[in-house]
Amino acid sequence: MNLQEVISQIKPVDQQAAEACNARWNLVAKPLGSLGKLEDLLKQTAAITGNIDIDIGKKCVLVFCGDNGVLAQGVAQSTSCVTSSICRSLLAGTASVSIMAKACGADVFPIDMGTVEAVPGLLDHRLGAGTFDISKGPAMSYREAEKGILTGIELVRQKKEEGYCIIATGEAGIGNTTTSSAVVSALLNRPAEEVTGRGSGLSDEGLLRKQRAVRQAIQVNHPNSNDSIDVLSKVGGFDIAGMTGAFIGGAFYHIPVVMDGFISAAAALCAVRLCPAVRGYILPSHITAEPAGRLLMEEMNFDPLIYGNFRLGEGTGAVSLFPMLDLAAAVYHNAATFDDIRMEAYQPWEK
After folding, report:
1. Of the residues 171, 314, 344, 350, which is catalytic?
2. pTM of the model
3. Rounded distance, CA 9 to CA 311, Å?
């Protein structure tokens, strides 16, 4: 099945399931809606799966790894060698996201979408040994961008067949806040200065280099803001393409996909632009500390639960949502109802 066939079959989430979930919440012996966004997240999960008997027990994180040729412009403190080090840490279970995932019972799957060094042990979906320098030309071909998206879709299919009930998105790749800034600049028609931050911690001089690289990428490549694949191919990254596919795959296979931070949100925007119905299948986790973070949330009309100023990546912000979802599900399934305590149920307040 090609990408357009997948997109054509994606339907909006099941609002009847969401309403049924809300009715079940209203039986729980507590003030109506008093768990706020936790209730909303479970209602959305019911809408995604079409099932009010919510099961989010088996969880995983897909960490899309890739290197970026724009590193040549001095846009980061580190080199691609650090990407390889992160990949090894992911495999060893010592990366930050690995520790956090273990603590909340989630599995981590690092995927090589195209790192400079091919690290043995990663799931091999390489599109190349890193992208080209976007300040000088396209990151990849249009066909490669499509292939990256299809890879993300296929990985969601595999994980659902393996019994996973919810998937978090993550990434690893030095320079990917630069490519994400370029993607957001192109899709939102915003200047580089407005959407480009310090990433892992750039000096003032480094920030200016990074903004210049993003500006040049837009000027050189002329990405079409009406075509997410064109934008991805010209100024994006292999990791962003894979995550874009993961969000589309979540919508196609009816499994909730948790959005992480800035890079993940840039991919989510690509997916939503390709198919607006995808938005309903995405669970936002947090607002990133990157300057474009709020812009992306406003554009997609998301109001995440966590305001943590996270900027680590790897999927750490997305994984942070898992324990909160578990808490919400525990109340939803196990708390006493008004009937249990022989109390008259609260009634909705009418404005």
Report:
1. 314
2. 0.97
3. 35
In this prediction, residue 342 carries a pLDDT of 85
Q: Is 314 a catalytic residue?
A: yes
In whole angstroms, how far apart are CA 80 and each of 118, 139, 176, 273, 284? 11, 16, 11, 30, 29
- Looking up tokens 């002329």 gives 222
Q: For residue 351, what pLDDT band results from cuts at 50, 70 and 90?
A: low
Query: So what's the pLDDT on residue 201?
Result: 78
Residue 349 pLDDT exceeds 80:
no
